[in-house]
């Protein structure tokens, strides 16, 4: 559908965004449902981020997605934030409700939905999660709310380590999940965590693109461990290759993109994204 004067705008803000298939999947969905809407992607420099958000709000943009590096930077600019997004301290979807911006996170929902799609059960399990960025905290929050029993988070012991410890404490108090944080460099604890875990999730960007490295020594992996990666380019990261060679069930992040997008689509339009059509065209 060609944009006209009445066309409603949705978009993605991030840096970089040239690789994103979000415009293609949303615009296909608009066409399939005969909605007068258009989705675009904008590469925004960090020093122009507030101006971009103010501009979208002033233009009456229906809503927008956030990707790196803006999932936490958006929070001070919001008028309201959903409870899950507040707990995760991460927002990837904004709805403009009559000039008021409300933030949500659909990343965790999208990832757990993709796990279900792949036949991976997570309720009552123990998880090890690598990283504590916006995607990782969203997955941890949704997993804790949806019945995972224990989550061990591993991250670098840097300036944000104590903030992650506070996040884990909030998760433990707000849900029935026990959540802990450990230093990524402590291989002894990491190995022990993987031995007691049912599921490993890489929520970092290690292994993305041409990076053929993994945070996990291959010898730490075992066949009863399901190994998931939030990365979808490449489809098989070094972590997933190592896991497959050890007999682990594996899953990459491509369906997370689909289902987090479907959840955002529902928030903006009130309609269900035609996921089967989108999946066949862009995810087969």
Low-confidence stretches: none
Placed side by side, the strands forming the largest sheet appear as: 2-1-3-5-6-4
Q: How many β-strand runs? A: 12
The proportion of residues forming helix, as a percent range, comes to 25-40%
Q: What is the total domain count?
A: 2
**Largest sheet, if any?**
6 strands, mixed
- For the CA atoms, what is the radius of gyration? 19 Å
Q: What CATH architecture label of the largest domain applies?
A: 3-Layer(aba) Sandwich
Strand content: 15-25%
- Listing every helix as H and every strand as E from the N terminus to the C terminus, the arrangement reads EHEHEEHEEHEHEHEHEEHEHH
Describe the structure in your own words.
This protein has 284 residues and is α/β, with parallel strands linked by helices. It folds into 2 domains: 8-105 and 256-282, Leucine Dehydrogenase, chain A, domain 1 (Rossmann fold), CATH 3.40.50; 108-252, Rossmann fold, CATH 3.40.50.720. It has 10 helices and 12 strands. It has helices at residues 22-32, 49-59, 83-88, 107-117, 134-145, 161-174, 187-196, 238-245, 254-269, 275-282, and strands at 8-14, 37-43, 63-66, 80-81, 93-97, 100-104, 126-130, 150-155, 178-183, 199-202, 226-229, 250-251. The strands form 2 sheets. It has a 6-stranded mixed beta sheet with strand order 2-1-3-5-6-4, sandwiched between helices. Strand 8 (150-155), helix 6 and strand 9 (178-183) form a beta-alpha-beta unit. Helix 4 packs across helix 9. The chain is globular, with a radius of gyration of 19 Å. The protein starts with 7 loop residues before the first strand and ends with a helix.
């Amino acid at each position: 559908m060609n944009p006209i004067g009445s066309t409603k705008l949705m978009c993605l803000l991030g840096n970089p965004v040239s690789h994103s298939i979000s415009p293609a999947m949303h615009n296909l969905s608009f066409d399939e449902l005969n909605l007068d809407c258009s989705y675009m992607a904008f590469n925004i420099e960090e020093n122009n981020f507030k101006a971009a958000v103010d501009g979208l709000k002033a233009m009456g943009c229906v809503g927008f997605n956030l990707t790196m590096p803006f999932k936490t930077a958006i929070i001070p600019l919001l008028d309201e934030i959903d409870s899950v997004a507040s707990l995760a301290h991460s927002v990837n979807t904004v709805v403009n409700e009559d000039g008021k911006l409300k933030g949500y996170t659909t990343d965790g929902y999208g990832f757990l939905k993709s796990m279900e799609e792949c036949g991976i059960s997570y309720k009552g399990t123990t998880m090890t999660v690598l990283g504590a960025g916006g995607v990782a905290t969203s997955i941890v929050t949704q997993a804790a709310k949806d019945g995972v029993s224990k989550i061990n988070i591993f991250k670098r012991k840097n300036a944000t380590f104590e903030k992650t410890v506070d996040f884990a404490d909030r998760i433990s108090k707000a849900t029935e999940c026990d959540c802990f944080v450990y230093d990524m460099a402590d291989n002894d604890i990491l190995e022990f965590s993987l031995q007691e875990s049912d599921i490993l999730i890489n929520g970092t960007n290690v292994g993305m693109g041409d990076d053929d490295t993994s945070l996990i020594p291959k010898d730490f992996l075992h066949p009863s461990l399901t190994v998931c990666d939030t990365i979808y380019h490449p489809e098989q990261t070094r972590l997933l290759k190592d896991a497959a060679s050890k007999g682990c069930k594996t899953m990459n992040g491509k369906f997370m993109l689909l289902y987090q997008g479907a959840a955002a689509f529902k928030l903006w339009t009130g309609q269900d994204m035609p996921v089967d059509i989108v999946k066949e065209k862009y995810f087969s």
